[in-house]
Amino acid sequence: MSKLSKEEFQAYLMQIRKLAEGPLEEIQKEVEVTNKFPKEFYDLSIKNDLYRCALPVEYGGYGLSELEILQVQEEFSRGPGGMRMHLHYAMDLNWRILDDYGSRELKDEYMNKFQDKSVFTCFALTEATGGTGADLHTMAVKDGDSYILNGEKTLISHTDCCEFAYVIAVTNPDSKKDDRLSAFFVPMDAPGFEVINMPHMMGCRGAGHGELKFTNCKIDKKYLLGKEGQGLEIAMHSLSVSRAHIAASNLGMAQRMLELSLQYANDRVTFGKPIGTRQAIRCKIADMSMMVHALRCMVYDFAKSYEENPTGEYIEEKAAMCKLYSIDTTRKVSDEMLEIFGGVGYFEDCKYGPVERLYRDCRAMWLEEGAPTVQRITISRNTIKHGAKMEYII
Length: 394
Description:
Keywords: FAD, Flavoprotein, Oxidoreductase. Helix content is about 50%, strand content about 15%. The chain has about 400 residues and is α+β, with helices and mostly antiparallel strands. The protein has a four-stranded mixed sheet with strand order 1-4-5-8. Strand 9 and strand 10 form a beta hairpin. The longest helix has about 35 residues.
């Protein structure tokens, strides 16, 4: 494929917004009950190139810039949260880890299969017995031309629809440095690999989650990503970029919640006047609009920085800031939205849109790719290192 022109890209954004707020919303009525995506969702995503568009041209993609990828994500994030969770991953970690760290052999075999979901992945870092960083316990022991994996992972998304798992495991248990971990591209059908489904979630219905269990799971050494001992670097860099994508998702949700709130405030009349004319409501609208605008500026600045240098000095810090501020934004905007709608917004069916579901769905963002405390640790560490300086791409 060739890159889209500016006009073609703008038309594509409108296409994705209509998809998110139209057909995907209709499908979600069933998903809220079954907690499972029907085949129609995957078919529509393939038809609308949502697995393809973020890929480089050489793998059948659109060759979008990082900013354009985040703009597409903002549009589909206006729709159902579980589908957003699936598609957000499809636009980033799903293919990018293999592209960044896979061997030429692995990339030649699998990269072009991401474009139509012939290959989909999950990212397995978190463990019940540790955190999501250096304190992991899943082991990968070298055995000739293979590795033997033993251990467990938890809270892993997309385990219901993937063929491979990016697994971060301990290969050098005696080390107390960053080289303790390695990363692997593990086939889900490898002997000794088991998936245990987890309960339904409060929001983001349809996105499957599970626990992964490895019992003497043997994989060929070709599935090692990067070099042995590079696992923590791979995980942290990949998460840094993904945190900015979480922020773009929050941006899409917050923008739609603001629009719904404004629409209702203009229609709802009390004492002969629309509530949108009252100072108290206008103050809420002002705060919501300000935070959405500020978040968009942060996300776009990150995108420009990433395009200039994906491993730049400020990438990790900016991504964590985007994620953290986006949580504050969706918290404020969703709370104000519910106050503006009042009791009408608390019901599942609302003629203005999915107010109740958006309120539930956005709560998952507190947790995806690291809780607020993790973002603050990352930001403070980098701020101290940089002496409170920051680089801006204008």
